[in-house]
Input
Amino acid sequence: MNPLRMIIMGAPGSGKGTLTSKLLKKLPQIHSLSSGDILRREMANGSEIGKMAKSYIERGDLLPDKFMANLIQAELEQQKWLDAKTSFLLDGFPRTGNQAIELESVLVPHNSDINMVIELDVPPEVILNRIANRWVHISGRVYNLEYNPPKVPFKDDITGEPLFKRPDDNPETFKVRLDKYFAELEPLREYYEKKGVYVKVSGETSDIIFPKLLSAVEAKVKSGL
Ligand code: AP5
Ligand code: MG
Output
């Protein structure tokens, strides 16, 4: 397999976390990292990073670009993914044009620049319906009371620990998050379109989106990139 260094983009609730889990079941050699999961873990640990993140997340605001770039760079270094061979998928980073520039400056010296960007394009009215039913585990595992319910109500399938509602999943904050996403989308899309790595996948359900995502990714890892 050719190394895949991929970004999955999409509005809040578009299914980035859910589709990443499905994809990694098919292609377990890909590592993944979600910026939101890292921040929620730091919040749960009560660390300085977590304290700083909390106020932004609860308002639905984006954290400062440089702060996020440093956080993700540290994670990539710690995981030892910065080489020309490792395949990884980033969920939730970059999400501004400046973050994309910062990321490129970290990856290029290691011959590991992004070679695929997927935008999940799901209608906002579909998304809003999903969020009311979302419950999560601190590991990042995501459930939906209708679509993929836990085996035991409100308990994580793997650990049995309680699930919780995200503090930013109330209707007011969610609207702010959606607006911020669409405000930042165009510069990011242009940035990666110019690099020739941008693919948009549209649809209302995972049954439609997942096969398209999987075949795009499989074609990429089998091609000469
Ligand atoms: P983050 O955690 O990244 O949240 P997000 O981008 O808002 O996206 P979500 O995690 O809400 O949605 P998702 O697309 O993963 O959907 P999911 O799979 O859960 O970021 C949170 C916050 O952290 C930001 O607001 C910001 O403050 C900060 N932050 C993070 N990264 C940052 C950065 N780079 N710069 C600055 N700040 C940053 O699916 C949603 C629900 O739908 C689930 O319940 C799921 O089960 C269900 N579902 C999924 N697919 C389907 C389907 N096909 N049918 C029915 N239900 C479905
Ligand atoms: Mg997510």
Remarks:
- The chain has eight helices and seven strands.
- The mean pLDDT is 94.
- Strands lie at 5-10, 31-34, 88-91, 116-121, 134-136, 142-144, 198-202.
- The two ends are 10 Å apart (CA to CA).
